[in-house]
Amino acid sequence: MTHAHxxxxxxxxxxAIGNGVAVIPTAPEVVRNRDAHYPYRFDSYFWYLTGFPExxxxxxxxxxxxxxxxxxxxxxxxxxxxxxxxxxxRYGPKAAKTAFGFDAAYSIEAFDKIxxxxxxxxxxxxxxxxxxxxxxxxxxxxxxxxxxxTRAGKRAPRAIxxxxxxxxxxxxIKDGAELDxxxxxxxxxxxxxxxxxxxxxxxxAEYELEAELTYAFRKRGADAHAYTPxxxxxxxxxVLHYVENDKLLNDHSLVLIDAGCEVRGYAADITRTFxxxxxxxxxxxDVYEIVLAAQDAAFAATAPxxxxxxGHDAAVRVLTQGLIDLKLLSGNLDxxxxxxxxxxxxxxxTGHWLGLDVHDAGEYKTGDAWAVLQPGMTxxxxxxxxxxxxxxxxxxxxxxxIRIEDDVRVTASGCDVYTSAPKTVAEIExxxxxx
Length: 435
Ligand code: GLY
Ligand code: MN
Ligand code: MN
Hints:
Blueprint: H1 3-16, E1 21-25, E2 31-33, E3 36-37, H2 44-50, E4 58-62, E5 71-76, H3 81-87, H4 92-100, E6 104-107, H5 111-119, E7 124-127, H6 133-147, E8 159-162, H7 163-172, H8 176-199, H9 206-219, E9 224-225, E10 230-233, E11 254-259, E12 261-263, E13 266-267, E14 270-275, H10 282-300, H11 310-325, H12 333-338, E15 365-366, E16 369-370, E17 378-381, E18 384-387, E19 400-403, E20 406-410, E21 415-417, H13 425-431
Parallel strand pairs: 1-7, 5-6, 7-8
Antiparallel strand pairs: 1-4, 2-3, 4-5, 9-12, 10-11, 11-14, 12-13, 15-16, 17-20, 18-19, 20-21
Helix pairs in contact: 5-6, 8-9, 10-11
This protein binds glycine (GLY) and manganese (II) ion (2 copies).
Residues 258, 269, 271, 405 line the site of one manganese (II) ion (MN).
């Protein structure tokens, strides 16, 4: 991704805000304990518009008005000889302006003084209202600083808009450079899942498989896990957000891994479920084939012009029929779907937008109408079945939890599944054969 991409996005947003002013800060550094910080992760909106990696930075977009061209202005940390010895290189405003193609750049120290000047006689101010109380207060302060000059004939913006509505709509459709990065993340994540399958042996701990994924991600240059990985042996897979990853993996049970990496901000999100010893039992295979068929049905329903829930509805139909075949549900297929009886075994949706955030920005529904798929949208397709042990559950099915998750982009004619970890029963058993 080049600076031209970020520039083009700023230009588009500048068009949308008229003569208004948009303020987009990056994320703060976060303390983990005492003086140790969590690894730094920039704000996704800020990154989308700038590609600037440092904390303590804000981009301000000032819309065009008669006689004045639109401007993008960066506020960032100053150069600091001593801090750079301890913490590393800082661009400083001067170098950042050139390197990232801003019209102007200033010290972050000057932000509270300069923002009111930029707001004078502008119609609107755009920011993420309510996202951060500190920022809401800072912006109110800047507005009040302009209002204090009313008698000098200066006018403060009358309208405050939530910037996210504009940005979310832009982020929903990925450009070619974004799709390339998402493909890179997907390739690395797919290789990580294959590596975990090859390494898996009965008696290992879940965290040992987590270590295989982390190794594969970092070895191939991914920046980090895109979210906390789930490595869930046996019935732990029925706990949807299981992240302890500290139990032993038993022979004859399955393990579910939901893990993906991040490459230059873009996430992959993959789930695979496979037998700890490399061979599916007949019951495990029966459930697995149902989930796999549900995913295929969802892929077929993921195409331009279809609505967001079409994939989910298709998956639910196959899963519910599967639950009837397994004798876990009985009755008429349409009635069972209508009454949502499948929800005991399938309680989440079949996908979500994917991008800079693993659950990416973008609306799903406007009023009663689901979003309509368009080329360039990226989403996950992740059906599952979770059979928690219970008095009415046959022992061979009790504790089986299976999810299969891949990432797709909507194309002109359908969808392209661009994650590639081993998936069919035959592929998994082949990659796990240790001879
Ligand atoms: N890994 C988060 C999800 O699948 O939605
Ligand atoms: Mn997902
Ligand atoms: Mn996932």
